[in-house]
Write a structure and sequence with these properties.
This protein has helices spanning about 10-20, 40-45, 80-90, 90-95, 130-145, 150-155, 165-175, 190-205, 220-235, 260, and strands spanning about 25-30, 35, 55-60, 70-75, 100-105, 115-120, 120-125, 245, 250, 275, 285-290. By secondary structure, the chain is an alpha/beta fold. It has a single domain, classed as Collagenase (Catalytic Domain) (3-Layer(aba) Sandwich), CATH 3.40.390. The strands form 3 sheets. Strands 1-3-4-5-7-6-11 form a 7-stranded mixed beta sheet, with helices on both faces. Strands 2-9 form a two-stranded antiparallel ribbon. It is globular, with a radius of gyration of 19 Å. The termini are close together.
């Protein structure tokens, strides 16, 4: 299946997102260097980085009483301000589906130089790819395996089946004449993630996708199906989080001296009115790797 012609411009999309989407104020709390979320430790080790080279921070955005726990390598080119300002523009319903965010200083060597990837509810990025369009693509992978589990089960599928692998999605795809991007040819999951990325522009730009390509209607059924199933998840009523993925448990960084350990950092959701989101069983190890355009064929 061909992709939309003329193609959507990712550069223009990112400029529009930065201009249109509201930012949230935030406050920070630094973790002791002796502690790290378990998922951050595992991803640091997978990619051959020293865990002691990461700074861990809890970040509270004004639209949620629970924090996000972020791990940034000290050599990352993106500043904390840039990372947090960008993340603050991700709508809270979508943002709530990440447990930990990790920023590496270079492509992930443990995953064939991946530019970004999602493992379960953990997002891992290199600085050059930390922009809203790619963020939305990666967040949609988590929505795919988590956000509509009840609908997946109600239609006779196993609870860990990605939404994109069900007829709820493939019927919409079959009704279209184009994919949103060449990369969407890779797999159904990448098709769903890129459709979600462009649906975000459709939902937030006054002119919809016609502003980005005259040929957008070639993928209109995919865009409309995504919006029908995911819009109320991404944009909850009242504009505040009601549920969130919790950070992975705090673990001691290897080789930390006993005198530096101190007390275990809090995990963030205790004492808040925010419910805990959970991945389906088996989904914690689901891996989606982004390396840029690598279209396959269907």
């Amino acid at each position: 299946m061909p992709s939309v012609d003329p193609p959507f411009s990712e550069e223009y999309q990112d400029k529009r997102f930065r201009a249109i989407l509201p930012s949230q104020r935030y406050r920070l709390h630094d973790w002791s260097p002796a502690w790290m979320p378990k998922h951050c430790l595992e991803e640091a080790q997978t990619n051959h980085f020293s865990p002691s080279d990461f700074l861990v921070r809890d970040v509270w955005f004004e639209d949620c009483t629970a924090p996000w726990t972020i791990c940034r390598h000290k050599a990352s080119k993106e500043s904390w301000d840039t990372i947090l300002d960008t993340l603050s523009q991700v709508p809270v319903g979508m943002r709530s589906y990440v447990s930990n965010l990790m920023i590496l200083p270079s492509p992930a060597p443990g995953l064939a130089d991946a530019a970004a990837y999602t493992r379960g509810s953990v997002l891992v990025f290199t600085p050059s790819y930390f922009r809203l369009g790619v963020l939305f693509h990666e967040f949609v992978h988590i929505l795919d395996i988590s956000a509509r589990r009840s609908a997946v089960i109600a239609h006779g599928y196993e609870p860990d089946k990605p939404f994109s692998n069900t007829a709820l999605w493939t019927r919409a795809l079959a009704n279209d004449s184009a994919l949103p991007t060449p990369y969407a040819r890779s797999t159904l999951q990448e098709n769903f993630a890129d459709a979600g990325r462009w649906a975000m522009s459709d939902m937030t730009s006054a002119g919809g996708l016609a502003e980005f390509s005259e040929g957008w209607e070639g993928c209109r059924h995919q865009i409309r199906a995504f919006e029908m199933w995911m819009k109320d998840v991404i944009f909850p009523k009242g504009g505040r989080c009601v549920a969130k993925m919790a950070s992975s448990e705090a673990v001691v960084v290897p080789m930390t001296g006993a005198a530096l350990v101190g007390s275990r950092p809090g995990l963030g959701l205790e004492g808040t009115a925010v419910e805990t989101l959970a991945l389906p069983e088996g989904a914690e190890s689901m891996l989606f790797v982004y390396r840029g355009s690598a279209p396959g064929s269907w």
